[in-house]
Design a protein that fits this description.
25% strand; alpha/beta; 168 residues
Length: 168
């Protein structure tokens, strides 16, 4: 991973689609190295929404009324990611929701950075949430809203963790 590559942090929120409640993209946020929002839109997924997952996603039926169609949003998002280092937490879920092969991208994933985990004192765990990493390394609590997660807040947090990891 080239350190000179421009970094963009991404976080997505998903809803459940169809009878199996498979994840569908309902919001995507991208922030730059300084935390400025590059993209933040509600997205109308392909398929019938059967579970808004509001408690976690923050998505409600009202958000879908004027949401960007998936195909349009996907094109916009992938254009912004092109040639960038994509920063995030457990990015495989975000790329799956985008229906995109993440092997085509340079990735920094806080869910896989064992040096970051060691710094946070959580090496003994198999999985570590973004919330725990933020509490331990940034000294603040995220994802504590009763109205669901904020993908902008989560993207900003992953960018800050990336900067800590790289000593920037």
């Amino acid at each position: 991973m080239a350190s000179s590559m421009e970094a963009v942090a991404m976080d997505c929120e998903m809803v459940g689609l169809g009878p199996l409640r498979e994840s569908g993209l309902a919001r995507c946020s991208l922030v730059d190295f300084h935390g400025s929002v590059l993209y933040d839109k509600f997205i109308r997924p392909e398929g019938e929404i059967t579970d808004y997952r509001t408690r976690v996603s923050g998505i409600t039926p009202q958000h879908m009324e004027n949401a960007t169609p998936f195909a349009v949003a996907r094109r916009e998002i992938l254009q912004l990611l092109k040639g960038k280092l994509v920063v995030g937490h457990d990015l495989k879920h975000d790329f799956a929701a985008l229906k995109e092969d993440m092997s085509n991208y340079s990735i920094y994933d806080t869910a896989a950075d064992m040096m970051l985990w060691a710094r946070a004192g959580v090496l003994q765990y198999r999985r570590v949430s973004l919330r725990v990493l933020c509490e331990r390394l940034l000294g603040r609590s995220i994802q504590n809203s009763l109205s669901g997660h904020s993908s902008v807040e989560d993207a900003r947090a992953t960018m800050e963790l990336y900067q800590i990891s790289r000593g920037l």
